[in-house]
Amino acid sequence: MMIEVLKSKIHCARVTEANLNYMGSITIDEDLMDAANLIAGEKVHVVDNNNGERFETYIIKGERGSGCICLNGAAARKVQVGDVIIIMSYAMMDFEEAKKFTPSVIFPDSLTNKLV
C-alpha cells in the first residue's frame, strides 16, 4: 500500500513579496529550498497563519541568501506581505518505508527568513 506523507516543511516563514503580475508559483530563497529538501517545480501546499488561506502552487528558485518568500500570480491575492506561512510538500511512499521516514522540517528566522 502507498500512502502520502509529509516530505518537507518550511515552518513559519514570512511573506516578503506578493507579485500579482507573474504567471504563478512561489519564489523561495534557494538556501531555504536546500535546507528543506525542496526543488524547483515541486508542488507545495501553502497555509497562511494570518488569514487561514490554504492553496497549492509550485516552487521557483529565489536568490540564495535573500530570505525571499514571494507569492506570484493568483496566489498573491491570498496573502499579504508580512503574513506568516507554512510551506509543505508530500511524497508517496510504501507504508513500511513511511514508518521509518523523517521529513525535512526547517524553522527560519521569523523576521529575515534566514536559517539560524
General description of the model:
By secondary structure, the protein is mainly beta. The protein has one domain (2-106): Barwin-like endoglucanases (Beta Barrel), CATH 2.40.40.20. It is 11% helix and 47% strand. The chain contains 2 helices and 8 strands, in the order βββαββββαβ. It has helices at residues 30-36, 95-100, and strands spanning 2-14, 17-19, 25-29, 43-48, 54-62, 69-72, 84-94, 104-106. Strands 2-6-3-5-4-7-1-8 form an 8-stranded mixed beta sheet. β4 and β5 (54-62) form a beta hairpin. The longest helix has 7 residues, at 30-36. The radius of gyration is 14 Å and the shape is globular. The termini are far apart. The mean pLDDT is 97.
Summarize the main sheet: 8 strands, mixed
Fold-level CATH name: Barwin-like endoglucanases
Shape: globular
Radius of gyration equals 14 Å
What number is the mean pLDDT? 97
Describe the secondary-structure layout:
Elements: E1 2-14, E2 17-19, E3 25-29, H1 30-36, E4 43-48, E5 54-62, E6 69-72, E7 84-94, H2 95-100, E8 104-106
Parallel strand pairs: 1-8, 2-6, 3-5
Antiparallel strand pairs: 1-7, 3-6, 4-5, 4-7
